[in-house]
Amino acid sequence: MCAEGTGPERGAASPSPDDPDFPAARAAAARGLTELDAALPGCRACPRLVAWREETARTRRAAFQDWTYWGKPVTGFGPADAALAIVGLAPAAHGGNRTGRAFTGDPSGDVLYAALHSLGLASRPVAEHRGDGLALRGVRITMPVHCAPPANRPTTAERDTCRPWLARELELLRPTLRAVVVLGAFGWQATFPVLAAAGWRVPRPRPPFGHAAEVPLHDPVADRRVRLFGCYHPSRRNVFTGRLTPAMLREVLGRAAEGAGLAPRP
Ligand code: SF4
After folding, report:
1. d(CA 91, CA 98)
2. 23 pocket-lining for ligand 1 (C-beta < 6 Å)
3. Of 66, 109, 145, 240, whose CB has the highest number of CB atoms within 10 Å?
4. How many domains does the chain have?
5. Mutate to test the pocket of ligand 1, among 22, 161, 163 (most ligand atoms within 8 A of CB)
6. pTM, whole model, 2 decimals?
7. Is 7 among the domain residues?
């Protein structure tokens, strides 16, 4: 369903894709998001996640037997000059790992894209597959772990191994980024060191995760502020139990969009 190894040529000394140093080396070498997104699908640095994503792609869920699963790392989705970043957790085994696009083809994405569409930030309310024509306005959706983990639970070692991809992505977004929404406590914990590595001054001790929490961050180089928001993850469980309602999600995303200077759709 997609081309393998689409990144630029690697030098002889570059780590191989299954080397734990691969993410840091390849992410740092990316001069823009196009290069980053081309290199990421070739990553095989986490053996457990590689095995899981590929096994899931082979066996498939009964409802998707006619699909050719993506079965590789899922990149961020959205324009390279986004003002708002949304940071999730990891691709779903039969969602992003199937379709090859963040939050696409799973119940979490149904809730997220409906909210973004209601705010004029997504061209469609539903994300089905990579060729569905969906486009985001001023928003980039990404994640701290780019491969689907068993039971949606990456280990801290896998999170740390994957960190350079997100760090480089946020670094490349830095000139235009004005707000970040983090979906869930795992992403919250993962994002602070990434933001610090990407150049933002983050408070110490780190603020605890909470729904609708807001933390101002400072970019000392450009003397700009970035507003960081916490939001419950739109997981099936959170939505089913009412812990997160569509209205709650829309309220946080709306505040973040306002902070990012993204005017609501008339
Ligand atoms: Fe590479 Fe990240 Fe996937 Fe690990 S989780 S294999 S670092 S893309």
Report:
1. 9
2. yes
3. 145
4. 1
5. 161
6. 0.93
7. no
Q: Is residue 45 lining ligand 1, measured as CB closer than 6 Å?
A: yes
pLDDT recorded at residue 2: 34
Phi-psi region of 199 (alpha: psi -120 to 50; beta: other; left: phi over 0): left
The answer on pLDDT for 10 being more than 50 is: no
The domain that holds 239 is classified in CATH as 3.40.470.10
Q: Which of 28-37, 123-132, 165-174, 217-226 has the lowest mean pLDDT?
A: 217-226
Following DSSP, what letter does each residue of 218-238 receive, concatenated?
A: EETTTTEEEEEEEE----HHH
Is 75's C-beta closer than 6 angstroms to any atom of ligand 1? no
Residue 139 counted as domain residue: yes
Q: What is the pLDDT confidence band of residue 221, given thresholds at 50, 70 and 90?
A: confident
- Residues 229, 214: Cα–Cα separation, whole Å: 5
- How many angstroms does the Cα of residue 5 sit away from the middle of ligand 1? 14
Q: Which of 70, 74, 162 to mutate to test the pocket of ligand 1 (most atoms within 8 A of CB)?
A: 162
Domain of 198 in residue numbering reads as 22-259
Dist. CA 150–CA 90, nearest whole Å: 10
Atom number in ligand 1 closest to CA 50: 6
Residue 266 belongs to a domain: no
